[in-house]
Amino acid sequence: MTTPNNAVPNNLPLEGVRVIEFTHMVMGPTCGMILADLGAEVIKIEPPGGDKTRKLPGLGIGFFRTFNRNKKSVVLNINSPEGHATVLQLIGQSDVVIENFRPGLMASLGLDYATLSKTFPRLIYASHKGFLPGPYEKRLALDEVVQMMGGLSYMTGPKGRPLRAGTSVNDIMGGMFGAIGILAALREREHTGRGQEVQSALFENCVFLCAQHMQQFAMTGESPPPMPSRVSAWSVYDVFTLADGQQLFIGAVSDKQWLTLCKVLERPDLADDPTLQTNEQRVHVRPKLLQRLGDILKLHRIDELSAKLDAAGLPYASIVQPEQLLDDPHLKASGGLVPMQTDEGTTTDVVLLPLLIGNRRPGVRQPLASAGEHTEEVLARLASAMPA
Q: What's the rounded Cα separation, in Å, for the pair 201 and 170?
């Protein structure tokens, strides 16, 4: 593994690993961010003018800030002879290359694994695509496309109304699987001395998410219904509207929890009802039971009921909008939401990786890089490494 000149030890697992990132949008940047958060030196190669993801409008406006922290930014025109030669020098000093551009683009630039591995046999090369090799591999894909193809939209929406998930689940998880593959390849290289290509794909990722439903059909011979139409395994496992018009999810997934819920609601008549003693009995009359509970719960205030459910140890949750999470007390107290200086000089709170390593939360180590901010620093290192 390479060690950056004048590097300051950060005591993170991937310290000393250098990554060259050719990415945009979400999937590839997620992979690079995970490696960067874990201590790798990730150098993001941006075209002149910067990654266009920086300036996306609408639902894409938060992409760059979310998935590009802890990276260095170098602006190069890799289509020019000078830029191409420079990027080859950078790759020669690195452990990993990440890319997520359309099929064939990197090969047309001579920056694909087959070409680079001839000169750099220790290189680990991670491609993030729409599909793994096969009949679909030339198709262009988006998260929404593969959610439709991979069964997720069908399972999420009501029958006849396929609905994509409310975030870029496959892009994000595809980047995660890319990072997992890179970590495995780094480990294998310790034994073989050789790198290899890692491939992660949106479609296969989505199919993996739906694998449990595929097995359900394989075992029962019955097509699993969309989640809004599902036959619940539990009688009380739903969203209820309370007195103040706010909604609360409540789950009672065992007979013990059912009795606890009856106690919280001060309804011994429900607890003593001989037709509601077991979960199987309650599931059998679930529509009527939910209607009865709905009539009861609309008399309760959400703050008071939440406190009682919490004290009783019952599963519950209010329906939270993303912006409310910026003030979530658990995220703040647990260190999962921390400030980061943006490329514009302002400060924003960002969500860290959802894990602890040795009781440490990998965090923000530097401001979000502006386009080309580290070009001189990184290229100066190349010059100093050239023999006299």
A: 9
